[in-house]
Amino acid sequence: MDHRPEPPRHRRAADLITVDELLQAIDDAADPAVAEILAGYFKLGPGGYGHGDRMIGVKLSSLRPLIKPYLHAGLPLEDLEQALGSPVHEHRLAILCLLADRASLALKPRTANPAELAAIYDLYLRNTASVNNWDLVDCSAAQIVGAYLLDKPRTILYDLIASPSLWERRIALVSTHRLIMAGETDDTFALAALVLDDPEDLIHKASGWMLREAGKRGSPDALLAFLDTHAAAMPRTMLSYAVEHLPPETRTHYRSFLASSSARRRPRAPDW
Question: Model-level pTM?
Answer without folding.
Answer: 0.89
